Structures are given as C-alpha cells and as structure tokens.
C-alpha cells in the first residue's frame, strides 16, 4: 500500500504537467547537502533527485537521501517543486516518501531476543532561492520542515528452566519515533 | 517581485522557520507494550489437600521431572501435579490417573511412598495402588523458598495458588524523552510468567527406591530423602516411610540446581560448579569438595571414577560454552577436569555402564560409548526431538522431550528402537 501511494505521488505531477506544458521537458538532477536540526541534535543530510523539468517551472522526479538525524535512514521520495517569480529564482518543493532505517546500533539487554527497526513516513517541504550559473546549472539554497517516522521493535523473552518444556512469555515493545526537524540545504541543479 | 527581494524574503523565512515550526520541531515517541501476565486463582488449603487423590487422567501439557517405580512412571505436570502412567507394556504405556498437587515440581519414590512438594509443604502419598492413592502426611513449610510465586503468596496457612489466569495486555503510552526501552519486569502487581520448567529425579541408591533423572532436586538414599533448593540441603528421615520427618537443614552453597546420589556421596550441581557431600552419617551430610566451572546450568551424574557435568549457556544460565565436562573424582577431595566435549544445548544425562546418554536440547538425544572418557565415541544421535531429561534403566531410555515422553529400547545399541511416545497436548 505504501509503495502504491509512493508511485502515485511520483507519477501525478508528471502526468499533470506533461499535458499542459508544450515546451520540451528537460532532464534534471538535483544534488543537495544540508543540515537537519531538531529537538535533540543537528545532523547532516544528503539528497539526490532526478526527474524531468517542464518549462523551467515544474520539476518532478524521484529522490534518495541519507538522513543522519537520530536514527540513520535512507529516505526514498517523490520530489516535486515549482519555480516562481519573474525569473523563476524562487521555488517551493515537497518531498514525500518512505524512510528506510539503516545501520542503527542496538543495545545488548538482558533477555532481549530481537531488536529491529522498521521504516515509515518521510516528508520534506520548504522554500528556496536559486542562482543561475548558466543555461544548465543552478545553485540553490532552501529551508523547510522535514519529518521522518521510524519504529523500533524490541522483543524480550522470559527464560525457561534448564529442564522440561516451557512456555516463554514474550514482551514486545514498539517504539514509534516521529522526528520533526528544520532542514536547510545547499543544492546544485543540473539540467540537460 | 525582484529577485533580490525574493532572496531577502527567503532569508527572513529561513530565520522565521524555527519559530513558526517550533511546535512541530520535536522528537516524539509512542510506546506500545504487548505482554502477558498472570493473576493467581486461590483455593483454601483444606480444599487443595482434599483433592490430592487419584483423579481421572489428564493430558500431558507442561511436563517436568519424572520418576520410575516398578511398572509405573510418575511424571510431574509443572505446578499442577503428577501423571500416573502404567508402563507395564512399554510399547503401550497408559496414562491412568492424575494426582492434583498444586505447586508441585519435585518428586521422589521409595517403595510404596511418593514424596512430593506442594509449594512450601511436603506431602507423603501411599501409591500401593496408583489408581487409588492415599495421602499419609503433610509437613508444613519444609521449603520456605517456595513461599512466593511471582510476587504472590503461593502457600500460607489459608490459601494455595491453584492456577494462574492468563491476561493478554497491550499498553500504549508516551515515551517522549525516554529515548529507549524499559522492560516491565520490575512490576510488582503482576507475575510475568517465566514458564520455568522442571526436570527429572536422581538415580536410586537402593533397591526399593525408584529411579529418577539427573535434573532432580529430591533424591532418596536408603532411609533419607535429600532435597535441595538454591542454597540449602535438607535431610528428611524416612525411617518410617509413611511418617517423614525433617531432620536437618544445612547451607550447601550457591545457585544449586540438582542433586544426584552415588553410593555414600551426593553430587550437587550448581550454576558455579559441583559440590560433593559425604553422607556416611546420612542425617548430617558433610561437604567434602567442590569443583568450580564457568557459570552455567549444569546437571551432574557420577560413577566411581568420574562425574559427568553438562553446561548449558543461556540468558539465565550464563554466557558459557555448551559442553560436557568429565571430572575425575577418584580422589574425592580433589576433583579434576579430565576433558570437555562440545555440545549444542545440553540438559539432562544418564549413564548405563559404558553407555552415556545426553539430552542435547534441539539437537536431540546423543548416545556415547564412554568406556574411554578421553575419547568418547558418539554411537548415535536421535534427532527430531527437543530433549530435556533421560532415565536409562533395563535397556530402556525414557526421555522427556518438548513434545512428549519417549521410550527407546537400546538392548541392541546398533538398532535403538522407539517403543512408544505419550504426546504432550499443547
């Protein structure tokens, strides 16, 4: 179900705008690096989006990132942005997708039999300003709000004695983490 | 709007973002805890005692220690009582009766008397006719360490825990700022079941006594029954079998789990090692030696020359290797390690002359030729069963496993045959 909504989110802008814009779309790749600041920490963020740009006004594509805030994750998202203003130097963007937790350490705890992380909703939306370098290249700065949800499931099992069958009791703890952050990015925007 | 104005607007927006989104810039955590706890169901002590009789047979569910006496197998149902199994025909054992004894985990048999714990109390039962047993005596408060079950009073002058009512629960709460887990074992209002299981009984030292396994905490040598708990060794005089009398209680060591008799010695398995007691004076066992090993769960058996100890690792047992230790006890004052053999998850064991049977948990039952302890020869591994304890007797191996009670005929060691199985009804 999550994959279906992700696909729809990615395809919707392309289907919508490809019909109303006569200019030939251009391939567009946006590489970003930035910082995410939240309640507990400030960590780096990296993103790479690729897609199509229509009339230098609309961009739609898919992106992947590396988000180090609290629990490291790889967000996979649909990227949509709109440039506005006379010279289209300003833009709004929204990234919506799914965050996959990766390489998060777990503590060794008494009687714990498993500890795993599960992914969840990811979004990043904000405003930006871009500087034109040439026909194909722009540099931009942006700021916005980002949220990622991750669930950690810890399972503990009571011990059995040394002899005889036993019915171990399981305690399952699910920690649903939701991190709301401010994000600031510097991006390089390449079209061809 | 000119670009520089837009740029300025964005800078202002950037500065305003932390204020505007301050309510949303937050690390939130919601915890869902799913678990099971048990609440006790009490009956009066009078009701419980009146119901200790040969009640209709019940299906095996959560079996523990067992004892063989004559043609009968007495098999503990943990905290519930004892199954009486007529084993006249080992190929077709019959579950004939159930003796309701709440809180029972240990048992021992001498002649026609069966001794069993009922939480803190000891009960002597005449089993001359296993289909119609008769209670002969109760001794109150012999095992005070069983006073509490999961934080509740398990047995006092008034009431006894008969059963536990299972309650499945899910709790959702905020864990903001907690940043991690908390495990509810600290709760005092409920009992988080550990599913603790129990094991067999020690081997007999004299003819009229039944035969038990290596996981026992009760054993009988001549006219005395010996019972261990974590720190204590108790002697119960059976001079008059129908009238047992607690005669002595001594501090035996730490974390004691099992007791095994051989001739005039008692071998106590503890999580930290093995203790050897001399029972030349049977009323007053005297500690003779101890052999330390890595912290583990460890039943022990012995013969004239060697003690055989299995070490099992695990959360409650300790992070040691799973192995079989063979300890030279020819000089009883100074036991020494001879050799170790790696195993998978060993539990009970039994020896019949040169044949050594080891329950190796999920790996099954291993049968060794132990004529040369320095070079044990694995003769056979019976796989497909999760084994806990074994008694070998008269060319038959009786094995308590996760899914039932198995009996094997090993009269031809090259062709060990399954005689029967009484399945556990989960």
State the assembly state of the protein chains: heterodimer
Mean pLDDT of chain A: 84
Can you count the helices of chain B? 2
Report on the biggest sheet of chain B. 6 strands, antiparallel
Largest β sheet strand count, sense and barrel closure of chain A: 8 strands, antiparallel, barrel
Task: Give me the count of strands of chain A.
Answer: 9
| Largest interface: chains, residues each | A-B, 51 and 64 residues
Low-confidence stretches of chain B: 179-208
Given the C-alpha coordinates, what overall shape of chain A results? elongated
- CA-CA gap between termini of chain A: 34 Å
Strand order of the largest sheet of chain B: 2-6-5-4-3-14
Protein structure class of chain A:
mainly beta
Query: What general outline of chain B do the C-alpha atoms trace?
Result: globular
The number of distinct β-strands of chain B equals 34
Helices and strands, with pairings:
The complex is a heterodimer of chains A (192) and B (426).
Chain A: H1 2-20, E1 26-37, E2 42-54, E3 58-67, E4 73-84, E5 90-101, E6 112-118, E7 120-132, E8 137-157, E9 170-191
Antiparallel strand pairs in A: 1-2, 1-9, 2-3, 3-4, 4-5, 5-7, 6-8, 7-8, 8-9
Chain B: H1 3-20, E1 27-44, H2 45-50, E2 54-55, E3 63-69, E4 72-77, E5 81-86, E6 94-100, E7 107-110, E8 113-118, E9 121-126, E10 134-139, E11 148-149, E12 152-153, E13 159-174, E14 211-212, E15 218-221, E16 224-228, E17 232-237, E18 245-251, E19 256-262, E20 265-270, E21 273-278, E22 286-292, E23 300-302, E24 306-311, E25 323-328, E26 336-342, E27 349-352, E28 355-359, E29 365-369, E30 377-382, E31 387-393, E32 396-401, E33 404-409, E34 417-423
Antiparallel strand pairs in B: 1-13, 2-6, 3-4, 3-14, 4-5, 5-6, 7-8, 8-9, 9-10, 11-12, 15-16, 16-17, 17-18, 19-20, 20-21, 21-22, 23-24, 24-25, 25-26, 27-28, 28-29, 29-30, 31-32, 32-33, 33-34
Give a structural overview.
The complex is a heterodimer of chains A (192) and B (426). Chain A is built from 1 helix and 9 strands; from the N terminus they run H-E-E-E-E-E-E-E-E-E. Chain A has 192 residues and is mostly beta strands. In chain A, a hairpin with a 4-residue loop joins strand 7 and strand 8. Chain B is mainly beta and 426 residues long. Chain B has 2 helices and 34 strands. In chain B, the strands form 9 sheets. Chain B has a 6-stranded antiparallel sheet, with no helix packed on it. A 4-stranded antiparallel sheet of chain B has the order 7-8-9-10, with no helix packed on it. The termini of chain B are far apart. In chain B, 45% of the residues are buried. About 7% of the residues of chain B have low confidence. The chains are: A mainly beta (192), B mainly beta (426). At the A-B interface, strand 7, strand 8 and strand 9 of A face helix 1, strand 1 and strand 3 of B. Strand 9 of chain A pairs antiparallel with strand 1 of chain B, so a sheet runs across the interface.
């Amino acid at each position: 179900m999550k994959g279906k909504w992700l696909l729809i989110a990615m395809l919707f802008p392309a289907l919508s705008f490809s019909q109303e814009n006569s200019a030939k779309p251009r391939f567009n790749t946006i590489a970003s690096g930035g910082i995410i600041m939240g309640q507990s920490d400030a960590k780096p963020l990296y993103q790479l989006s690729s897609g199509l740009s229509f009339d230098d006004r609309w961009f739609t594509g898919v992106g992947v990132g590396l988000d180090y805030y609290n629990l490291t994750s790889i967000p996979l998202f649909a990227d949509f942005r709109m440039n506005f203003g006379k010279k289209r130097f300003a833009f709004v963007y929204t990234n919506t997708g799914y965050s996959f937790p990766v390489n998060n350490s777990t503590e060794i705890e008494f009687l714990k039999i498993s500890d795993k992380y599960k992914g969840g909703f990811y979004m990043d939306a904000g405003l930006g300003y871009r500087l034109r370098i040439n026909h194909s290249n722009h540099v931009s700065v942006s700021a916005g709000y980002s949220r990622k949800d991750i669930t950690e499931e810890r399972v503990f099992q009571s011990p059995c004695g040394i002899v005889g069958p036993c019915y171990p009791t399981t305690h399952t703890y699910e920690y649903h983490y939701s991190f709301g952050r401010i994000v600031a990015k510097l991006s390089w925007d390449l079209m061809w | 709007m000119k670009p520089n104005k837009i740029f300025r607007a964005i800078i202002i927006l950037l500065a305003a973002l932390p204020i505007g989104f301050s309510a949303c810039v937050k690390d939130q955590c919601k915890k869902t805890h799913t678990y099971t706890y048990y609440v006790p169901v009490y009956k009066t002590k009078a009701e419980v005692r009146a119901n200790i009789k040969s009640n209709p047979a019940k299906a095996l569910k959560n079996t523990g220690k067992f004892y063989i006496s004559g043609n009968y197998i007495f098999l503990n149902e943990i905290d519930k009582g004892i199954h009486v199994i007529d084993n006249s025909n080992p190929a077709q054992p019959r579950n004939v009766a159930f003796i309701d004894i709440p809180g029972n985990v240990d048992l021992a048999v001498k002649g026609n008397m069966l001794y069993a714990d009922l939480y803190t109390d000891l009960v002597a039962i005449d089993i001359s006719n296993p289909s119609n047993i008769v209670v002969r005596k109760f001794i109150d408060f012999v095992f005070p360490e069983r006073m509490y079950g999961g934080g509740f009073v398990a047995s006092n002058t008034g009431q006894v825990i008969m059963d536990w009512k299972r309650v499945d629960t899910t709790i959702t709460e905020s864990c903001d700022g907690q940043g991690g887990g908390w495990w509810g074992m600290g709760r005092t209002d409920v009992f988080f079941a550990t599913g603790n299981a129990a094991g067999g009984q020690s081997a007999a030292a004299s003819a009229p006594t039944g035969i038990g396994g290596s996981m026992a905490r009760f054993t009988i040598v001549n006219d005395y029954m010996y019972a261990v708990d974590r720190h204590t060794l108790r002697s119960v005089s059976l001079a008059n079998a129908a009238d047992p009398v607690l005669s002595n209680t001594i501090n035996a060591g730490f974390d004691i789990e099992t007791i095994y008799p051989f001739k005039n010695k008692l071998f106590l398995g503890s999580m930290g090692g093995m203790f050897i007691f001399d029972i030349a004076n049977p009323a007053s066992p005297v500690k003779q030696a101890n052999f330390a090993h890595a912290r583990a769960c460890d039943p022990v058996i012995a013969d004239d020359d060697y003690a055989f100890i299995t070490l099992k690792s695990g959360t409650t047992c300790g992070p040691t290797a799973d192995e079989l230790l063979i300890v030279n006890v020819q000089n009883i004052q100074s036991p020494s390690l001879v050799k170790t053999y790696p195993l998978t998850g060993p539990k009970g064991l039994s020896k019949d002359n040169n044949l050594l049977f080891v329950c190796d948990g999920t790996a099954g039952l291993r049968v060794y030729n132990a004529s040369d302890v320095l070079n044990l020869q694995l003769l056979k591994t019976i796989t497909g069963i999760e084994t806990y304890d074994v008694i070998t007797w008269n060319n038959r191996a009786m094995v308590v496993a996760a899914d039932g009670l198995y009996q094997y005929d090993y009269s031809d060691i090259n062709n060990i045959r399954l005689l029967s199985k009484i399945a556990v009804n989960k």
